[in-house]
Amino acid sequence: MSTIVLGGGLSGLSAAYYLKKMLPKVPITLLEASDRIGGWVRSNKVDDCIFEEGPRTIRPRGSPAAFNTLELIDELGLANEIVPILSNHPAAKNRMIFVNGKLHSLPNSLISLFKKQEPFSKPLIRYLLNDLTAPKKNVKDEPIYDFVNRRFGSEFADYLISALICGICAGNAKEISVNFLMKNLFQYEQQYGNITKGMLKNLFDSNKVKPKGLALKAKKEKWSVYSFKNGLETLPKALENKLLDHKVEIYVNTTCKEIDLPCIDDNGLVFLADGRILNAFHVISTVSSQCLAKVVHKEHPQLADLLNKIKCVTVGVVNLKYNKRLITKDGFGFLVPPNEKLPILGVTYDSCCFPNGDNTVLTVMMGGAWFKDLFGDYPDKQDLLKTAKEQLKTTLGITDEPINFKVSIHQNCIPQYTVGHTETVEKINAYIKNNKLSLSLCGSSYYGVGINDVILSAKNAVNDLMEDV
């Protein structure tokens, strides 16, 4: 009899880690359907560089979730493996958008807010000041595009926020919930009438979590983002090794077919596709909500319906390496607002972020909310590669052929927190509680899609479980 963890991505590994840390004697079994551990985090060493197929950097500041990840990294003994990008580095200062056939740098200093920069028709401070007079709208939730358009204007929403949402979750800002991805700003408006007043009132909030340890080091040294010497996959690999050292059973190529969820007063059963049946006194699900819906539908159709409301999008990732320097202005890369109607979400300049000789390494991201319309249900990787090279020619003028490349198609990899997401998650949790199910939920489907978010969601799930033990 053991606690079953569904999913071997960062959230699943973290959940097993925190559970073993708090209850060392509790048997844990982690099940992963694919042939590897690590989820969407995958670092491939190609020649003398690293192709990141999924996330490539982590933010070290600004939230308890960021501090928690650094604490975990310290516990795993990975502090010396970190490669930070400092705030004065071009990759931290230069972030761009592609609009009207040209690359435009986004404002990166206080002074730049007072200067008019294309594609904006006026200085950014003018848009920000609009918040002081924009009327408050009493709503529970709304699309993030509508919220930003109301408070800051259409250019701010079209060029800045829409592009940002493409970068965060490959989503459409006209569908994504403001009450999740910009929850604090939305609540400032609802509580104080405008964002500016809310920010001023909370400027000296004494309840803010203060950084310590590695997080304090990141603050003092002014890290902007960070990765590891051998790529971001260093983190899930370290977690996997730690779990194996502590006798956690980890199974790959193991598909869960159905779950008879355990109740508080009874144990449950996990039916595997290979015919095995596992006994469970608790299940921690870190897989996507739609995957979980499939295996609980028979016993809990109402729960499955709620889980299916959280949709995911597919993202194509094309990594390319060139044997000479091709970027004329160093930076993190650029995003493409949906209004530009290009078949890519953006491009990261990996060799600018983490230089490696005279090579140029780029990653082109495409699809997301528009993947099916662009590439159909059964996309060909060669089509994605062709599109990536065409778009690099259009946006950066690159006509050279890459000396190496990797094309990845991540099916249903990023959940979309559309309007009403918070309410849907509340209903899911209420169903679990009302039916006394021994089920914990964490991972990217519920409480945030970033690396910091999914790790903290795993820790919170385990903490909540400890309260019930």
UniProtKB/TrEMBL annotation:
Job of this protein: Catalyzes the 6-electron oxidation of protoporphyrinogen-IX to form protoporphyrin-IX.
Record carries keyword Oxidoreductase: yes
Cofactor: FAD
Top-level EC class as recorded in UniProt: oxidoreductase
EC number in record: 1.3.3.4
Gene Ontology MF annotations: oxygen-dependent protoporphyrinogen oxidase activity
Reactions catalysed according to its record: protoporphyrinogen IX + 3 O2 = protoporphyrin IX + 3 H2O2
Family designation: Belongs to the protoporphyrinogen/coproporphyrinogen oxidase family. Protoporphyrinogen oxidase subfamily.
Pfam families for this protein: Amino_oxidase
PANTHER family tied to this protein: PROTOPORPHYRINOGEN OXIDASE (PTHR42923:SF3)
Cited SUPFAM superfamilies: FAD-linked reductases, C-terminal domain, FAD/NAD(P)-binding domain
Flavoprotein recorded as keyword: yes
Main localization (coarse): mitochondrion
GO biological process: protoporphyrinogen IX biosynthetic process
Domain Amine oxidase positions: 10-465
Gene Ontology cellular component annotations, sorted alphabetically: mitochondrial inner membrane
Keywords associated with the record: FAD, Flavoprotein, Heme biosynthesis, Oxidoreductase, Porphyrin biosynthesis
Name of the molecule in the record: Protoporphyrinogen oxidase
Functional pathway: Porphyrin-containing compound metabolism; protoporphyrin-IX biosynthesis; protoporphyrin-IX from protoporphyrinogen-IX: step 1/1
Co-factor: note: Binds 1 FAD per subunit.
